[in-house]
């Protein structure tokens, strides 16, 4: 930014702050809105780098959320059914001032101050403004700064010169967890406990964890026969507390020729995604706050907004194409151990209309298509690994050690065992999956057809590369013929808890669904529609897999943490079924080979083939894995063309010759 422009911006900020400082003492806004503006002005003035971390987030913490204007229910009760939720959404957006201040984003700071001041001015008149006036101001702000916010996020993803978070990780004194406050994210007691524990581990263990993480990333390129040599950057996604391991990962990636990039979890309404915390982040102050504001885009979502969002995204990627085309993809460290979240369904939280839902889904697909053009699948990969955090309970350290062991199991050994399953599955036309006990699963999964069994296979032999830990074989089922009921008594998906989840399928499409979370069937269906179907009227079954990591299952059972296991590990502890896109979405035409040299040919299904006529209709933009644990599993049997059956599992135990070793952890549990 030119010197003159910076001087003008500083003058603008000084003027904004002078005006803000006067508001708490003014009496020019009619009740009850006066309290809202005083409270929000005080918040804006409190956001400073040296402010106590808890002060910045105190208003939205669960114990205070009931009387916070960030809560649309409270705002509606105090400010009215229309103006309350709108002003609550404004306040939620104004909270993005926190990262703007910590990263010295002065133009963003000025934009947020002026959004608040412009709305405040409308309320200084004797009459309360109409809701549409305030909505228009908020909408104009979102449109005016759309390009700035989107470019800040995309640039942080692909440009290694954006070093705010990387500099903290490289220079932090890990002996003092106070370095965590430099990020401007919420630092909970659990975050501090995580950092203290990680920073006390032997260097050998840190190196082992980092090596598993980065080597899995490298192997993702090797196994997919993609060229890593041409790539220049890798995006690191993680939760605060693991900086010492991330620093070690930096060194490993740099030896591969990759510079790290770090994108903060989205803070602005127009850059939020289905998973708002899709970047580096601190602890979640209050998941209910995120849940209440996830559809605030309803305030501006129309055809013009979608068109502008697509246009500016295309232009940003074009400007940054030299960097995005050399971006290798994300390396993700996820955490688990926080108790499952079941949201309160707040009626005043903003919602998308039916028309807006269609626009939203179309926009998501269009933005993804643009991203794929500039970060193409043929030259990118990823890896994901999970570690527990202290919130998991008093056995944290033992669970952490067990997780490290699970994450570092011998891939080659598992590959040989899994090949026996694949050889049997390749003989089938379908697979029958039955539950046992209270589990009502009765599902037939139709399999793709092999043309040349000597050179082809229909199941991928999954080792510890892109998905750590090792332990599954998977395929994209045929839709026609895949029918029945999928039932799980208790499952934890993408941060949400489901009780007695049931999904019915007919020819590979979801026809009905329910769960037992809420008192009414309408509430249960809406919960699934929002968080599994993501507003699609139906989804296909995108994946069928058999998990083989009985060691991970033993860990979960031993420590009683089944309901806290992340899907990345839980999916390896039984058969699982993904609703939505296949595992190969956007790269179906790239060959995939198993360790035995056979090409995995089941990369498409009848729905994904639509891409050849209309790319915009081929993908759902979601993929949710649902696992049946071994103790709920009656049997898995391969059904051959002649009607014969090959048993793979019976009574939750592996019975196929060559796979019996997988039962050892299960037998150990029985003896305990």
Could you list some keywords that capture this structure?
eight-stranded antiparallel beta sheet; 672 residues; alpha+beta; single chain; five-stranded antiparallel beta sheet; 3 domains
Could you characterize the architecture of this molecule?
The strands form four sheets. An eight-stranded antiparallel β-sheet has the order 12-11-10-6-5-17-18-19, covered by helices on one side. Helices cover 41% and strands 17% of the residues. The chain contains 24 helices and 19 strands. Helix 1 (3-22) runs parallel beside helix 8 (106-123), helix 16 (303-319) runs parallel beside helix 18 (354-374) and helix 19 (396-407) runs antiparallel to helix 22. It has 672 residues and is α+β, with helices and mostly antiparallel strands.
């Amino acid at each position: 930014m030119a010197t003159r422009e910076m001087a003008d911006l500083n003058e603008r900020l000084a003027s904004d702050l002078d005006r803000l400082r006067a508001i708490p003492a003014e009496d020019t806004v009619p009740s009850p809105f006066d309290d809202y503006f005083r409270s929000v002005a005080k918040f804006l003035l409190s956001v400073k780098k040296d402010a106590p971390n808890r002060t910045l987030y105190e208003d939205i913490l669960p114990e205070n959320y009931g009387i916070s204007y960030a809560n649309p229910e409270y705002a509606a009760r105090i400010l009215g059914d229309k103006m309350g939720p709108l002003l609550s959404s404004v306040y939620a957006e104004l909270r993005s001032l926190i990262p703007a201040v910590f990263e010295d984003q002065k133009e963003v700071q000025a934009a947020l101050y002026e959004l608040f001041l412009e709305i405040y001015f409308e309320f200084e008149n004797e009459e309360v403004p109409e809701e549409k006036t305030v909505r228009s101001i908020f909408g104009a702000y979102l449109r005016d700064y759309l390009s700035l916010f989107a470019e800040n996020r995309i640039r942080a993803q692909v440009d290694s010169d954006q070093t705010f978070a990387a500099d903290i990780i490289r220079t932090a004194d890990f002996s003092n967890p106070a370095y965590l406050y430099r990020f401007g994210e919420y630092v909970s007691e659990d975050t501090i406990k995580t950092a203290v524990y990680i920073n006390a581990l032997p260097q050998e263990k840190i190196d082992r964890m980092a090596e598993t993480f980065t080597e899995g990333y490298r192997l993702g390129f090797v196994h997919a026969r993609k060229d890593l040599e041409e790539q220049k950057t890798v995006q690191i996604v993680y939760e605060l507390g693991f900086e010492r391991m991330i620093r070690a990962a930096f060194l490993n990636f740099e030896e591969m020729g990759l510079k790290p990039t770090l994108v903060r979890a989205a803070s602005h309404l127009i850059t939020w995604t289905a998973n708002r915390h899709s970047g580096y982040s601190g602890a979640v102050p209050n998941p209910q706050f995120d849940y209440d504001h996830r559809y605030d885009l309803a305030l501006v979502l129309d055809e013009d907004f979608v068109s502008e969002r697509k246009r500016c995204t295309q232009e940003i990627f074009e400007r940054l194409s030299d960097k995005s085309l050399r971006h290798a993809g994300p390396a993700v460290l996820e955490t688990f151990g926080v108790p499952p979240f079941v949201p309160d369904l707040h009626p005043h939280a903003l919602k998308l209309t039916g028309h807006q839902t269609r626009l939203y889904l179309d926009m998501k697909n269009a933005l993804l298509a643009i991203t794929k053009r500039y970060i193409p699948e043929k030259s990118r990969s990823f890896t994901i690994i999970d570690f527990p955090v202290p919130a998991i309970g008093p056995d944290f350290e033992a669970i952490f050690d067990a997780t490290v062991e699970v994450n570092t199991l011998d891939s080659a050994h598992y590959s040989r065992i899994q090949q026996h399953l694949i050889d049997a599955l390749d003989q089938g036309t379908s697979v029958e999956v039955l539950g046992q006990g209270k589990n009502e699963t009765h599902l037939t999964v139709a399999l793709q057809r092999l043309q040349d069994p000597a050179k082809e296979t229909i199941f991928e032999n999954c080792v510890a590369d892109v998905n750590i830990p090792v332990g599954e074989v998977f395929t994209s089922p045929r839709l026609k013929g895949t029918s029945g009921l999928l039932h799980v008594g208790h499952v934890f998906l993408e941060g949400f808890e489901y009780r007695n989840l049931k999904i019915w399928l007919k020819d590979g499409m979801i026809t009905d669904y329910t769960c037992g979370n809420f008192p009414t069937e309408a509430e249960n269906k809406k919960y699934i529609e929002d968080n599994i179907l993501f507003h699609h009227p139906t989804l296909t079954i995108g994946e069928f897999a058999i998990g083989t990591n009985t060691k991970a299952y033993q860990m979960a059972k031993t420590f009683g943490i089944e309901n806290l296991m992340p899907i990345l590990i839980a999916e390896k502890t039984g058969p699982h079924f993904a609703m939505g896109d296949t595992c190969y979405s956007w790269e179906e035409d790239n060959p995939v080979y198993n360790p035995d040299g056979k090409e995995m040919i089941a990369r498409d299904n009848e729905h994904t083939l639509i891409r050849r006529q209309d790319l915009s209709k081929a993908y759902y933009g979601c993929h949710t894995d649902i696992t049946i644990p071994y103790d709920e599993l009656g049997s898995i049997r391969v059904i051959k063309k002649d009607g014969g059956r090959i048993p793979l599992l019976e009574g939750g135990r592996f019975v196929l010759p060559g796979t019996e070793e997988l039962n050892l952890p299960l037998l150990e549990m029985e003896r305990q």
